[in-house]
Amino acid sequence: MAIKVKVMDRPIEEVSYVRATLSGLALTFKHMVDPHKVTVQYPEERWDISPRWRGTHRMLTTEDGKAKCVACGLCPTVCPANCIKLVPGEDEEGNRYPLVFEIDEFRCIFCGYCQEVCPEEAIHVGRHYENAEYSRDQFVYDLERLTAQTHPVCEMWDPADPKGE
Amino acid sequence: MAETMVNLTIEGRAVSAPAGTSILEAAKQAGVLIPHYCYHPGLPVAGVCRMCLVEVEKAPKLAPSCATAIAEGQVVHVYSEKALESRKSVLEFLLINHPLDCPICDQSGECELQDYTFAEGRADSRYREPKRFNPVEDFGGDVLYVPNRCILCTRCVRFMDDVHEAPVLNVSERGDRAFIGKAVDDDLTQPWAANVVDLCPVGALLSKDFLNKARAWELDRTASVCPGCSQGCNITIETRDNVVMRYKPRGNDAVNKFFMCDEGRANYRWLNRPDRIELPMVAGNAVDFSVAIAAAAATLKGKRAYVVANPSMSNEALYLLKRLIVKTGGAGHFSVSIGNEAPLPGVEDLSLRADRAANANGAELLGFKRSDNALAGLASGDVLIIANEELAGVSADAISKADAVIVIGIVMPKCVTTAATVLPIATFAEEEGTYTNLRGRVQRFLQAKATPGHARPSWYVLSDLLTACGETSEFFTASAAFDALAKNEPAFSGLSYDSLGLKGAVIAGAMAGAK
Q1: Do the interacting molecules here have an ipTM over 0.85?
Q2: What CA–CA distances, in Å, run from B368 to B54, B326, B330, B374, B483?
Q3: pLDDT, tens only, B83-131
Q4: Inter-chain residue contact B103 with A70, CB threshold 8 Å
Q5: CB-CB under 8 Å, B212 with A89
Q6: Which of B103, B212, B218 faces A119 most closely, judged by CB atoms?
Q7: What pTM was computed for the model?
Q8: What's the gap between Cα A104 and its chain centre?
């Protein structure tokens, strides 16, 4: 039994593919000349990230290259993810200094509390997002690694200047 | 003579206290803590810090509550505008020369200056001039003096003068140049001097031993009793990550007031020793606990148990050992190491006792015999049970008479080479139990850290061993073991964990003041 198909009788200008093709091509040609680009040619090109970007940590140092940290213990206390390990001790001159300072970047939730709480402005979250490593254990950053980082650090949100002006 | 009670109102609360009580102490009763620095209940009143000023109605000026006695009908306002304003000013003055180096200060987190400034102080300072600077000074003993942080409350001076009766400290210079000075030819190498570190409300006097080791808020605190001597000072064991960091004295008016001696304070490291026995062993092979208990019970079968007990074992463990001795017809001995006695002159009946063991009294009450050489009575054919003793300096020959050896301890004694059975137990910081001090006060200590490896509490191991030997002794808590002890030992009758609390209770037979 043959099936009867109802054929709609539509005007040619509505069903022709030519119009759709042309409008599609128009969009493509428009993007070719549009200065607003969506795709970034990473890694040749990179986004400018926000000054408040919170990425992997960096420990700032004094002029003589020592970590500014005095091992006060506030960052491991405030850390909501418990990712900072700190063992306080004394350096050669008898100053309070971290014997062990490790941040497990896998555990870190990048809240930035450690930077906010630090009374010595030593530990900072960084404006940095390229963190690939070959093994998992390399994501536990020790003091040497943290002081060796060079990327720019986060500018925390200032309640007095909420828009960063 | 009955004390006359005085009624007054503090912060709208009716308080009744004996005549002569200070407003500050009366306020404590009412649950109001008046901020204070120089006042300490264990020291004479000085009234120098001006922090405890409160408003008393109908009085012309604010009154120092530590040095003002209560009076009938007094109405005291601790948090009135005037009192708050005055304390705010006092705090601002105290902070003029305070370096605000809280990040590197060991007192941070347990500092009264931090606490009260946070609660009532100004948010900023109006002082623009450079701060006074004095170098750090070593006061000898375990004490380090950081003069910049000092608020000159003189608690340390009064402790050394009036309680320790060794006047080594004074207030030198005047005005803003004042600092705590130390006698030229003497220092704080004194048996009780480290108490000034606890007394110091700020970080001016620090323990050299604890310096830069941990932060106050990282420590877990557990009520315990010092095992160092037979005085039985109440202490708090402070641990971090299962490592004992320090002891602090815990107040108990009947034993140690607020103090503990330096020797007891320094005696915490052995709790962290790495050479502990962690696994039960039979003939040198690590086995399951049940296997080791069965082996020990088989060894004891038909033999006399000769127990050499450590007089710092808990009452519960000694009681269970005693039952083992009675069952096998054996004997129990202990020896106590003797040191120098060092009393604290300003406190009655408080001293670092010559007996350097916590529970010699309890061991004697439970029938253990005290002797200089605990191994002297060992007869051939006995089973030697070495209970928590290290037997330092004892040669292997001295115990060769024993038919077999059972070690119930925390470390292997050096003289034991072919121990039949080794049962690892907990230290006093890893189990619950009680000690009996030399005045017959039975005091509880609580578990502060976990045992290493498979070690178990001593009362648990010994009750299992007794059960394996055919006795009915199944205890699942330390309090059950203590209840059995109180029921079966007349010396301890009437006591229970409930009646001991955390301040202890004196056993019925103990005469007050008996040596």
Answers
A1: no
A2: 57, 11, 11, 10, 20
A3: 999 999 999 999 999 998 999 999 999 999 999 999 999 998 899 999 9
A4: yes
A5: yes
A6: B103
A7: 0.87
A8: 16
